[in-house]
Amino acid sequence: MLLLMPRLVAHAKRIPPPPELAGLTLGPRHLSLLAFLLLDGPATVNDLAARLQVAPTTASLVIGDLSRKGVLRRAEDDADRRRRIVSIAPGSRSAIEAWLAPGAEAWRRALGPLSTSQRRVVVNALLAYEAAVAELRADAG
Predict the structure, then answer these.
(1) Cα-based torsion angle of the residue sequence 39, 84, 55, 104 in order, rounded to the nearest 10 degrees
(2) According to the model, what pLDDT value does residue 58 have?
(3) What pLDDT is recorded for position 83?
(4) Smallest Cα–Cα separation from 72: which of 19, 28, 36, 99?
(5) Is 101 in contact with 15 (CB distance < 8 Å)?
(6) What is the pLDDT of residue 81?
(7) Within 13 A of 41's CA, how many CA atoms are on the CB side?
């Protein structure tokens, strides 16, 4: 793991955003949000907040930021006019797809042969690692 993790991070950092997004300050939440919308399609703000594991107000701020830049589109839900459905703007879709789809396909190839319980072990190990790093950094700070 000591050799693998830095290589994975280095690979991810070398994938530049498409020119349409190059001027934006994109953090991990932005990337996750775009990936959810790309892979799963349009969603409500509350659904995206739950997937990102953030408060709806936080998700709304991220969505608003990307909406103002023309990357996302918010539309009224026909079934409930109080809700907003968030989607990738048509003009940004192909650039985001070309940028994020290879990473999603790599995960599919890596995790696809595993059983559901084996995939859960991988995800749980990565979550445990993330928690341990955060705890150790907090203890050091």
Answers:
(1) 10
(2) 94
(3) 85
(4) 36
(5) no
(6) 80
(7) 0
The answer to whether 86 and 63 are in contact (CB under 8 A) is yes
Hunting for tokens 């934006």 — which residue is that?
A: 24
Residue 82's pLDDT is 81
Give the Cβ contact number of residue 99 at 10 Å. 19
Let me know: does 48 contact 86? Beta carbons within 8 Å.
yes
d(CA 33, CA 38): 9
Residues of the chain with pLDDT under 70: none
Cα–Cα distance list, 64 to 14, 59, 84, 110 (Å): 27, 8, 12, 33
Q: Which pairs from 84-93 meet CB under 8 Å and 24+ separation? A: 84/44, 84/45, 85/42, 85/43, 85/44, 86/37, 86/42, 86/43, 86/44, 86/45, 86/48, 87/37, 87/41, 87/42, 88/34, 88/37, 88/38, 91/20, 92/20, 92/21, 93/38
Task: Give me the helices (H) in 41-111, please.
Answer: 45-52, 56-68, 90-111
Whose CA is closest to 90, among 37, 51, 44?
Answer: 37
